[in-house]
């Protein structure tokens, strides 16, 4: 039973080099540790460059945003900058399902990758336990005479597991007769879709965490009064369960660059960004902080500016848009891409006409990022089948639509050395490192009415011509307008597979009617969730799941996580 | 965000003093670590004394078995012995439910207690993830055309959470129409009732773990062929999830004595003992190893000898039976004790006649332990209301029924100093420390037929007059007789509240007909599970749950876990 894959550098040394006080770093098993962030409050402000990595509308295989974030941080180190990459912790659902792990790839990885992909330090498990404790408290209160007068039909709180488990999407709980609880319809979601995960990623302190959890709303009384975790007196125990989960995790890249891994809110149903606290630690210690937002710039990207940065209190100095020739060819109409299947092989072969057609998607994403008034660097994540003509076409299109630069990056094959050009472009774009930090330019002011916020995002970011409200959504709007949630930012839940709400609309759809089905208030996370069409919060496993390839080798190493 | 409650001694120092090589000890957050047990194979055999702590039939509040185990290990340290206590990890179900934490009490605790009670190093979460991954794989296989021809009505594999959640006892999963899986009845159990937890506690290596998991049986084909995790190709991923969970956890007591915390199988539904691997590490490093078996000697005690010790390859040198005057009074008929309610106050007041009546329960437990040919020391776990006459009566009864000694222990109030007499008696009873280890004397040979094994346990341990088999159990027996499981040891699932199957039969019931409802083969754990009457594997929360008292203080400490 030997240790995991050899770490590049002792992690305590990585923490020390980053300037984390010895007493603030706690090892949590081989290759991983947690950072008590209290020291940041006593650390003088540092002129760090804050670099957002976002992406085009991806293929189901992803366009290498994580790998690019890791490679870029390593490339910046090659240029002599003290760099940190901040990432979300991968959910185990995709690890065992289709997509594989979330530790990067090739020579740009977070190590030990199997630790990152399975459990890490248990934060997602802690989130699931806190979430499910509230669920158990709800059904227990119903069972014991319902003293809060909970209307069971209004209970919106699910249960969660950190796995893809289709059969749990719709369930009936409480069966079995007296002594087995009150039967009612229930549902399970994947743990990273929990509001508790969004809260973890947005909380600034244990006190903030506790307050947010106390406000979590799970349903209403029969008189329509909203009911919270505090009403069930379960908020304290939920907060206690998350005590150490709130400490950001430290790991390192394949070249020994510090990697802060913390929080994993879904990017389609939640705000899709790593934790505010993790970025605070990084910004207090490094010259350059590279952070990745989930899915395209329309999803995690927009939410980075409008939700995460508002809590953090600053915006990024530069945004990197990751594109691949493969992805652009798909938007140009090559191949039939289906979720849960391998990508068609023709996507990996040069196809200049299709790529030219698909560039409209990239142009849209550059435009989205430029609305937030940051310089944009396009990172062309190099693929084996890319032709010179294609790369030239991407560069030209990027520069002519307002990107600061467009650079090929070969970090997958070459590690940080392959990302030096990208790193140089990013530094050039982000301006004077000792100058003022760039002010935050959110898309909308918080005092804008909720319906206008939604219309603003749908039209300016997604390219919708109009927003269509369901009757339920209209009622939701009317209700929310009278509450403090009217001043919350909006998190729109929609597909990642299209700029629109419809996964079939590839490339650069516009003018469509964007449908809002339901609007919920997430009082603890502090945002309004607007749901567009069907959004699945519990993925299923494919017919040939990735778990079948995973196991322990004779030496006790974890193998088979791609 | 400061560190947890001050640790007595730096834990790395505790590990080092115990003789664990530096490279084999991994910190896993403040106050806890894991031990890579590989070094044990290279460590010369050591003449350690192995001390089992078992108990009488308890009240719902428990009679202080954990506290006594901790106090005894500390008492042995006071006498100059290098001691370790090995315990199961507490489930979070009871922590948030009725019973409170499992970290001992008073001045005999494992610290930091809130770490022990919540998450520890995530082993239970890892067990739950592995368990639920198999469940997801089963329903996924049903959904994707059922290539293994699984008969859905034979699926016996549950899902689990580490919480008390009554509403999940009986559920219907797979609702919602096409794309949402195949509807079928399902159930959830508490994670510590999972066969995976039993496997974790019995496995000797990663290889052994992987083999056991591959054999786990979840149901049958429509032709009646048993189906395993290996048939679904999910065993490798399940094993990978448990890679580090198999490493025993190290903590320390309130006086700095090493505490190895590992595994937490239920004692009513599973074998109820801490891990074999944890005890191996302890026996390789300490003079005295104190280990606790769950509930009474009829449950965890019998299974310690017949299941755990067979895997470990040795028996204990001495058994300690924990009794309280309070518990004996209850068996003597004082008060109306109800699960989920506070104990009646009259139980804490001296009552010599009732105690004399209840001593029959202690006598039965001494007799059970003596059947395994070990010397028995009765530990009278001192309570405030105990009278001198009562203590004298306990001592006399213990000595006259064959106990080696009976000693009052005040470790709750005084820590290790209060357990010195108990420690001395235990050393005296366990004989020459440099002599041969006592040979293992199980109750029955493995080649005895399964029905005879069950009859032997029911009559010799529980005091039954006969065993009554359900029709299902008879069919189960006939089926099992033809398989290799016929040579497995038997684990009987029954109530802890009585020596019999009926919780209402207090004190010393005998001659009753013991009903076996169902007999299952746990191929991975390697035992046959015989279920007596109704055994609840998913507890419920009470009307006033313990979670309502738990929270974080302003200083970030976890408060309110009793």
Describe this protein's structure.
Two copies of one chain form a homodimer. Chain A is of the alpha/beta class. The first copy, chain A, has three domains: 11-121 and 245-429, 3-Layer(aba) Sandwich (Rossmann fold), CATH 3.40.50; 123-226 and 234-241, 2-Layer Sandwich (Domain 2, N(10)-formyltetrahydrofolate synthetase); 450-531, Formyltetrahydrofolate synthetase, domain 3 (Roll), CATH 3.10.410.10. Helices cover 32% and strands 18% of the residues of chain A. Chain A has 17 helices and 25 strands. In chain A, strands 1, 2, 3, 4, 5, 6, 13, 14, 15, 16, 17 and 18 form a twelve-stranded mixed β-sheet that branches. Chain A has a three-stranded mixed β-sheet with strand order 20-23-22. In chain A, strands 7-10 form a two-stranded parallel sheet. In chain A, α7 (206-215) packs across α8. At the A-B interface, α5, β8, β9, α7 and α8 of A face α5, β8, α7, α8 and β24 of B.
Topology record:
The structure is a homodimer of 562-residue chains.
Chain A: H1 11-17, E1 25-27, E2 33-35, E3 49-55, H2 65-78, E4 83-87, H3 92-96, E5 104-105, E6 108-111, H4 113-117, H5 123-143, E7 159-161, E8 171-173, E9 184-186, E10 188-190, H6 195-202, H7 206-215, E11 217-220, E12 226-228, H8 235-241, E13 249-253, E14 258-261, H9 276-285, E15 288-292, H10 297-312, E16 318-323, H11 325-331, H12 352-370, E17 376-381, H13 388-400, E18 405-409, H14 411-414, H15 420-429, H16 450-462, E19 466-469, H17 471-481, E20 490-493, E21 513-516, E22 518-522, E23 527-531, E24 551-552, E25 558-559
Parallel strand pairs in A: 3-15, 3-16, 4-14, 4-15, 7-10, 16-17, 17-18, 19-21, 20-23
Antiparallel strand pairs in A: 1-2, 2-13, 5-6, 6-13, 8-9, 11-12, 13-14, 22-23, 24-25
Helix pairs in contact in A: 2-15, 5-6, 5-8, 7-8, 9-10, 10-12, 11-12, 12-13
Keywords (chains A, B): ATP-binding, Ligase, Nucleotide-binding, One-carbon metabolism
GO biological process, one term (chains A, B): tetrahydrofolate interconversion
Family (chains A, B): Belongs to the formate--tetrahydrofolate ligase family.
């Amino acid at each position: 039973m030997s240790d995991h894959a050899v770490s590049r550098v002792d992690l305590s040394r990585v923490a020390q080099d980053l300037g984390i006080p010895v007493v603030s770093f706690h090892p949590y098993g081989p290759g991983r540790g947690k950072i008590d962030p209290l020291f940041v409050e006593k650390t003088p402000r540092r002129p760090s460059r804050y670099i957002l990595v976002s992406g085009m509308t991806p293929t189901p295989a992803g366009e290498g945003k994580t790998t690019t974030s890791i490679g870029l941080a390593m490339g910046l180190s090659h240029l002599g900058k003290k760099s940190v990459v901040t990432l979300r912790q991968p959910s185990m659902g995709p690890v065992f399902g289709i997509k594989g792990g979330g530790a990067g790839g090739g020579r740009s990885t977070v190590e030990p990758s199997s630790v990152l992909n399975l459990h890490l330090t248990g934060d997602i498990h802690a989130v699931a336990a806190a979430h499910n404790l509230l669920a158990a408290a709800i059904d227990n209160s119903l069972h014991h005479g319902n003293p809060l007068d909970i209307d069971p039909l209004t209970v919106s709180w699910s249960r969660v597991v950190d796995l893809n488990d289709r059969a749990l999407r719709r369930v009936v709980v409480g069966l079995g007769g007296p002594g087995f609880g009150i039967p009612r319809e229930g549902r399970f979601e994947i743990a990273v879709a929990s509001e508790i995960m969004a809260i973890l990623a947005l909380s600034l302190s244990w006190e903030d965490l506790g307050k947010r959890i106390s406000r979590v709303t799970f349903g209403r009384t029969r008189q329509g009064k909203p009911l919270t975790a505090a009403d069930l007196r379960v908020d304290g125990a939920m907060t206690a369960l998350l005590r150490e989960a709130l400490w950001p995790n430290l790991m390192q890249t394949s070249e020994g660059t510090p990697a802060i891994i913390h929080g994993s809110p879904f990017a389609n149903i939640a705000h899709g960004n790593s934790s505010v606290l993790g970025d605070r630690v990084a910004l207090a210690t490094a010259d350059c902080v590279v952070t990745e937002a989930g899915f395209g710039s329309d999803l995690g990207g927009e939410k980075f500016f409008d939700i995460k940065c508002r809590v953090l209190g600053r915006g990024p100095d530069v945004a990197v848009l990751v594109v691949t020739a493969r992805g652009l060819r798909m938007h140009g109409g090559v191949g039939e891409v289906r979720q849960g299947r391998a990508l068609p092989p023709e996507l990996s072969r040069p196809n200049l006409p299709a790529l030219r057609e698909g560039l409209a998607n990239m142009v849209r994403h550059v435009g989205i990022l430029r609305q937030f008034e940051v310089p944009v660097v396009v990172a062309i994540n190099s693929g084996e089948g890319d032709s010179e003509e294609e790369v030239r076409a991407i560069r030209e299109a990027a520069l002519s639509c307002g990107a600061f630069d467009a650079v090929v990056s070969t970090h997958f094959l070459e590690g940080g050395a392959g990302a030096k050009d990208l790193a140089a472009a990013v530094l050039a774009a982000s301006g004077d490192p000792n100058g003022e930090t760039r002010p935050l330019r959110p898309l909308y002011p918080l005092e804008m009415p909720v319906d206008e916020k939604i219309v603003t995002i749908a039209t300016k970011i997604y390219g919708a011509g109009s927003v269509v409200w369901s009757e339920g959504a209209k009622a939701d709007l009317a209700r929310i307008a009278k509450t403090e949630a009217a001043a919350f930012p909006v998190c729109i839940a929609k597909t990642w597979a299209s700029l629109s709400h419809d996964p079939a609309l590839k490339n650069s759809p516009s003018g469509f009617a964007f449908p809002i089905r339901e609007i919920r208030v997430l009082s603890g996370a502090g945002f309004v969730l607007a749901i567009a069409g069907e959004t699945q919060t519990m993925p299923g496993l494919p017919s040939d799941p990735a778990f079948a390839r995973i196991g322990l080798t004779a030496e006790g190493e974890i193998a088979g996580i791609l």
